[in-house]
Every structure is written in structure tokens, then in C-alpha cells.
Amino acid sequence: MRPTRHSPDFVDEHAAYLVYRFVADQVVRGVVDLSIADHLAEGGLTASEIAARAGADRETTLMLLKASVAAGLMTLDSRGEFHGTKSLAVLRNKGLSQDRALAVVTAGVVRHVILSERARRIAWN
Fold first, then answer.
1. Does residue 31 have a pLDDT over 70?
2. How far apart are alpha carbons 40 and 85 in whole angstroms?
3. Packing angle, helices 8-33 and 58-70, rounded to 10
4. C-beta neighbour count of 59 within 10 angstroms
5. Distance of alpha carbon 48 from the chain centroid
6. Which of 6, 44, 65, 89 has the most CB atoms around it within 10 Å of its CB?
7. CA separation for the pair 24, 27 (Å, rounded)
8. Between residues 102 and 13, the one the model is more confident about
9. Whose CA is closest to 84, among 111, 19, 93, 57?
10. Are 37 and 88 a contacting pair, CB within 8 Å?
11. Using 50, 70 and 90 to split pLDDT, how confident is the model at 125?
12. pLDDT surpassing 90 at residue 3
């Protein structure tokens, strides 16, 4: 039986979705801010190499890269190098305006706010 919008299972599942979307949007934002798609355009790089090119802390960059792998934006090979996927290519700054990259992130944030409001109404109706 499928959960109804009033059942605890539906609310829990929807809340988990909202949390995941918010985290995914923050991952995209970090990738855009550090121009990681541009750094990986020529091939795989280690977390240290990406951090050095982006002028960022290695450990923080590594956490962002691992989250990006989980989100499907990149892959990690056995040598410890990260490689971009087709999804990551959309976030490249070359040939893509900064406005477009920001729009990708903003769309995710707006979607999060809309879904949060919808979840609030469902939970209290």
C-alpha cells in the first residue's frame, strides 16, 4: 500500500528528499564556486591538485569532491583521481556564462524552498 500524504511514512520520505536536495544544491554551489568543472575539463586530478588550482583547503575540497561523486557529478578512479561526468560539464565556466552557472544553483535553491513549503502544508493538513 502506498503511503498517503497524511501518513508518517510519506512525511518522513518527503523530509528526507528535501534534505537531500538541499545538500545536493550546496554541492553544486561549491563546485561552481571553485570552478572544479573547468579544472577537470582536461582530465583527472587528485584532491590535492584540485585544491591547489582552486586555492582551497585540501580536506574541505576532498569532502566536496566525495559529495560530488555521490551526487553523480564526477567519478573517482583507483589512482585517487577525480573525473568529471557529463553532468559536471554543464557547470563549466568556459563557453557557459557565470549567470548560467548561477541559474543552475539558484533553480535548485528555489525548488528547495517551494518543496519545503509544500511539505509544510502536507504535514499540517
1. yes
2. 10
3. 130
4. 10
5. 20
6. 65
7. 5
8. 13
9. 93
10. yes
11. very low
12. no
Q: What are the b/e assignments for 18-55, b being 16+ CB within 10 Å?
A: beebbebbbbbbbbbebbbbbbbeeebbbbebbbebbe
CA distance 108 to 40: 23
How far is it, in rounded angstroms, from Cα 78 to Cα 118? 42
Question: What is the average pLDDT across 81-110?
Answer: 69
Measure CA 66 to chain center: 11
Helix intervals (H) in 56-97:
58-70, 86-89
Residue 34 has what pLDDT?
92
pLDDT-derived band at 50, boundaries 50, 70, 90: very high
* Residue the block writes with cell 586530478: 45
